[in-house]
Amino acid sequence: MEGITDPKYLWMGPLGLIARGSKKFLLSEDGNLEIYSIKSSDSGRYTCKVNYLYNTEQLTTEIHFMVYVYHIPDKSLHLSSEFTAESCKTDKIASYEKHLLEKLESLISNLSCEIKEWSTQCHASTDAVEKITYKLTFQFGVFPLMLTIADLCRSPPCENSTSNIRKAYENIKEFFELQKTDSSHIDQLYLIPGTLAAVKVDHCKPGFGKNINAGRNNSMCPGCCVTCPPGRFSAKHDTICILCPVGSYNEKYGQVECENCPEAKSSDGKGAKTQRKCHRILPMWMAFLISSAATSVILVTTWIIITKCCKKTIAAQYIREAESEVKKRLQDFANIASDEEIQAQRSKLSPVKLENDKAADSVEESMALLNNDELTEPSTHAGTSLSPGQAGQSELETNIESLPALPNQRNFAPSNQQRLLADIIKTKMP
C-alpha cells in the first residue's frame, strides 16, 4: 500500500510464537506464512501482527485466521458371503476358513490392504424341505494400510487408498464367481449365488471427525474429516469427535485423547477445554456432611415457618372469639342501659297523668266486656221474669259490685278509682 514503509511481521500460532528458520513453518519477506508436513495439531487460531510506518506515524495492525486441517475420508470394505454345508463341524469349517483367508489375502497383498475383523457363523437352514442343510456365513473387512499403520505407510500405493479398495473388491468378486463351479477343496461347501455383499465405510484418521462444523471447509470439501476441536477427541478410525469425559480436558486441536484433571480435581461436565475448568472436589465424607447439614437446615426452617403460621392462625381465631364475646357483653350492657333509661323516663312522668291513663285503660276494658254478645242471662227465682233492661242492669250491678277490691299494685287503679269507674258505667247505661 502507498504510504506504508518498513513493515515488520510477527506470526503467532496455536502453540505460540512462530520463529524464522523453523522447519515446519516458512515466513516470507512479504509476510506470507507457509506450513509444511501439516498435522491435525496445526489447526487453530493464527494471528499476524504488523508494525509499520504510515505517513510518519507508527501503527500496529493484527489479522486473525482460523486454520482447519482436514482430509478426504478413507474407505474400507465390509464384505459377507454365504455357503451351504452338510454340517457345522468345527474341524471342517476351520479348514475351509483357513483356505479362504489365505486365498483372499493373496488377492489384495499388492494393493497395500489387509483383511481384518474376520468372523464365521454356522446355523441350520430352513430353506430345504427334503433334508436339513446348514448355512455358513463369512464376514470380513478390507482395510487400507494407511488406516492401520499410517505412520509406516508413505508409499504412493498407500496414499491412493480409494482406488486400491476398488481394485481389491474387483479381485474378491472375481474369486467368488469362480467358487460357483470350483469346489475342489471341500465338496460339501457350495457358494450360494448372489450372496456376496460389500459396503463401503468412511473412516477418519485419529484426531479427526465428520461431526464438526468447520465453516467454509464444509463447502470446500463436503463430507471431509476435520480436526477435532478443543474439548473433543477421536481415538479410533471413526467419524465422530467425542466430548472429553468428566474429569478431563483438552486444549488442543486434533487430539486422540484428553488429559486428566490434576489430582483431587474434576470438571463440572463433559467437553472441558482448559485446565481452568478443573476445580477441587470435596471428599465423600465432607460432601455427605454438608448434604446432611443442608437437609437439617431445610427441615428446621420448614418447622419454624409452619410453627409461626400455626401460631398466627390460632391467635387470629382467639381474637375473633374474643371479639364476638366482647360484642355480646357490650350488647347486654346496652340493653341494661336502655331498660334503666326507660325506668328513668317513667319516673319523670306526672303521677296524676299516669293514673288517668290507667283509668282510661280500665274503661276501655270494661266497654269491651259490655259489648260482648255472648253474655248469658241468669235464671230468675220463682218463675219471675225480668225485663231485658232490668235484667241487664241488675246483673251488671251485681257483677261490678261483687268484684273484689284489687290491691294497689303496679299498673292497677286504686279501690276508690274502681268505685268511681263503676258509678260512671251506671250513669252511662240506658
UniProtKB/TrEMBL annotation:
Q: Name one GO cellular component term.
A: extracellular region
Q: Is Ligase included in the keywords of this UniProt record?
A: no
Keyword match Ribosomal protein: no
Show the stretches that span the lipid bilayer. Answer: 285-306
Task: Give any single GO term for biological process.
Answer: acrosome assembly
Pfam families on file: Ephrin_rec_like (PF07699), Sp38 (PF07354)
Q: Where is the Ig-like domain?
A: 1-60
What ranges does the record give for the region Disordered, renumbered to this chain?
A: 376-395
Q: Which UniProt keywords apply?
A: Membrane, Transmembrane, Transmembrane helix
Q: Which stretches does UniProt call biased (Polar residues)?
A: 377-395
PANTHER family registered for this protein in UniProt: IG-LIKE DOMAIN-CONTAINING PROTEIN (PTHR15443:SF6), ZONA PELLUCIDA BINDING PROTEIN SP38 (PTHR15443)
Protein name according to UniProt: Ig-like domain-containing protein
Organism listed in the record? Anolis carolinensis
